[in-house]
Amino acid sequence: MRAEDASLWNDPQEAQKLMRERQSLEEGIGTVKGVTQALEDNIGLIELGEEEGDESVVQEAETAIRSLAGEVRARQIETMLSGEADGNDTYLEVHAGAGGTESQDWANMLLRMYTRWAERRKFKVEVLEVHDGEEAGIKSATVLIKGHNAYGWLKTESGVHRLVRISPYDSNARRHTSFSSIWVYPVIDDNIQIDVSESDVRIDTYRSSGAGGQHVNTTDSAVRITHIATGIAVACQAGRSQHQNRAKAWEMLRSRLYEEELKKREAAANATEAAKTEIGWGHQIRSYVLQPYQLVKDLRTGVESTSPSDVLDGDLDDFMEASLSQRIEGGVGQAVADLD
C-alpha cells in the first residue's frame, strides 16, 4: 500500500492528499459495514418479535431502520461531493443589493445564517473582509469557511436571496422586499497553478473599517485586487499588515479565476442549467418570507420550510441536499423514497 511506503513523505503535499483519501475511504467503508450490520440486526429483531407476538420489539426495530434511512441519505449526499474542488475549503461573499439599510441588514442576516450553518458542522469560519452599512448591517463581507467538503456543500448557494418582511427601519411598518447575493468559490490546492500577472490586475489599498485595533484602522493595510480582463475583484482586510492582506487577496483572486474555469467546464458539458445561468438580480434562488406568512422556498427545487427562524439560524441542509441532488442525474430522492 502506498500509505505504508516510507518514501511517500518525501512529498508532504502528496502524502497529505493520500492520507485524506485513505481516511475518507475508511470512513465510508466503516459506515457501509455499520449500516449493513444494523439493518440485519433489526430485521432479525422484527422476525423475532413477530414470532413471539411482541409488537413493541417490532416497532422499536422499525423505528431504528427508519433512522438508518436518514443516515444513508446523508452518506448518499456525501458521495455526490466528488467534484474537482468539492472537498476544499471555500470562500463565501455576501453583497447587499439596492435598498439601503434594509438590504444591508438582510446581507448581515445571511452572513450570520451561513456562519451558524458552518458552526453546526464544526467548520471554522474566518472573517476576511467586512464593509459595514451606514446605519446597520453590512454592504459586503467575505469569509473563509474551512472544513471537509465545505465548497461541495455550499457551491449551490451562489445566487440572489430575497427577503420579504415588515421592515424594522420603516416608521410606517410597511412590508419591504430586499435582495442580497451570495457568491461561493473554492480555495484552490497548492498544486493547482493559476498564473496571473501583476500587469493583468489593478491593486488598490485603503484603510480598513470595523473592529481591528488602532494599527489596522489607521493605516492603508486593506487590499483590493481587480482582474482587469474579467472585472473580478477581491478584497482582504483581516491581516494586520498590507503584506498579509495582499498575499491573501492574491489567493482569493486565483480561487475566483479557478472557479470561473470550473463553471465554464460545467457549462460546456451541460452539467446543469444552474451552472450556465449568470448570477443576477433577476435570478433569485430562494425567498424568505417573514410577513404576512412564514415560509422559506427554494425556487429551483421547490423545497420549503415553514420555520424561517430555524433556516436563518443555519438549518440549511435540506435545501443544500435538494439542490445537490438536482445537479446529479438521478439524484438521491428516489433512492431515499425506496428506503421508506
Q: What would you call the structural class?
A: alpha+beta
Listing every helix as H and every strand as E from the N terminus to the C terminus, the arrangement reads HHEHEEHEEEHEEHHEEEHHH
- Principal-axes shape call: flat
Distance between the termini: 39 Å
Structure description:
Peptide chain release factor 2 directs the termination of translation in response to the peptide chain termination codons UGA and UAA. Belongs to the prokaryotic/mitochondrial release factor family. This is Peptide chain release factor 2. There is one protein chain. The chain contains ten helices and eleven strands. It has helices spanning 12-52, 55-80, 101-120, 150-154, 214-217, 242-268, 273-276, 308-312, 317-327, 333-339; strands spanning 90-96, 124-132, 138-146, 159-166, 175-186, 201-206, 222-227, 233-236, 284-289, 295-298, 304-305. Strands 2-3-1-5-4-9-10-11 form an eight-stranded mixed sheet. Helix 1 (12-52) runs antiparallel to helix 2. The protein is flat.
Write the layout of secondary structure elements.
Layout: H1 12-52, H2 55-80, E1 90-96, H3 101-120, E2 124-132, E3 138-146, H4 150-154, E4 159-166, E5 175-186, E6 201-206, H5 214-217, E7 222-227, E8 233-236, H6 242-268, H7 273-276, E9 284-289, E10 295-298, E11 304-305, H8 308-312, H9 317-327, H10 333-339
Parallel strand pairs: 4-9
Antiparallel strand pairs: 1-3, 1-5, 2-3, 4-5, 6-7, 7-8, 9-10, 10-11
